[in-house]
Each structure stands twice: as structure tokens, then as C-alpha cells.
UniProtKB/TrEMBL annotation:
Name of this chain's protein: MIP18 family-like domain-containing protein
Family: Belongs to the MIP18 family.
Keyword Iron attributed: no
UniProt keywords, alphabetically: Chromosome partition
Biological process, per Gene Ontology: chromosome segregation; protein maturation
Organism of derivation: Bemisia tabaci
Length: 131
């Protein structure tokens, strides 16, 4: 039996990510919430699995891939323990959710996206912490 736990502490890492298009954070827009992150605790021989589910603001959100990329990059930089990160659009909330889920969970596509200077700059602007 798989045991998943909600970890409100972890949402602190992503709650202040800025929306790429609106002057608000993902938490303010209810794209992410405390229920967005589930963690399957690690066993002595395994790594933890962190599952993040986000809810785009509209079913045809053309920046959903960027939002997913921002969540992935922010968590990869913030977490130090070994983990597997799965990021998904909440089922039924986006017209192309399957395609986007594949993109944001494919290491090669993520690496290629971050090599693009324009995308990298946009992601950096969205994930930067303000004082």
C-alpha cells in the first residue's frame, strides 16, 4: 500500500513563484495550494517521490508549460535530499494536459528548454525571491 502525505512545508518553496503573465503569485491565483504537493516518504533503499499537481487559471492557458517548468526548476534548486519529482496538471483542467505533463517530466526537454536564453530568463524572473 502506497502512503502519500501532504506536506504544507514544501509548498513554501513554490508558493511565491510569479505567474509569467499576471502580477500575482501561483498561490494567489490558486494555481498551487497546500494540497498541491504530496510526498511518498523514502525507504532505506529508495528516494522520496514528490508529486506536484497544479491547476492552470484557464483550460487553454498557453503558459502552463512555463508554469510547470518554473515549479520543476524551483524545487530542483531548493531540495537537497535525493528525490524523484513528478509534476502534473490537475486532471481535467487543461485542454492539452497530457502533452504538457510529458514535456515537464521529460529531463531532455526540460534541459533543452533551459538552454533557450529567452525561456531561461522568463523562468528566472518567475522564480526569483523578492526581499
Amino acid at each position: 500500500m502506497e502512503v502519500w502525505v501532504y506536506d504544507a512545508f514544501r509548498v513554501d518553496f513554490i508558493r511565491n513563484i510569479k505567474d509569467p503573465e499576471k502580477p500575482a503569485t501561483l498561490e494567489e491565483l490558486e494555481v498551487v495550494s497546500e494540497d498541491s504537493i504530496k510526498i511518498k516518504p523514502s525507504t532505506p533503499s529508495c528516494i522520496s517521490v514528490i508529486q506536484v499537481e497544479f491547476n492552470p487559471t484557464v483550460p487553454h492557458c498557453n503558459l502552463a508549460t512555463i508554469i510547470g517548468l518554473c515549479i520543476r526548476i524551483k524545487l530542483e534548486r531548493a531540495l537537497v535530499d535525493p528525490f524523484k519529482l513528478d509534476i502534473y496538471i490537475k486532471e481535467g483542467t487543461h485542454s492539452t494536459e497530457e502533452e504538457i505533463n510529458k514535456q515537464i517530466n521529460d529531463k531532455e526537454r526540460v534541459a533543452a528548454a533551459m538552454e533557450n536564453p529567452n525561456l531561461r530568463s522568463l523562468v528566472e524572473q518567475c522564480i526569483i525571491e523578492e526581499e
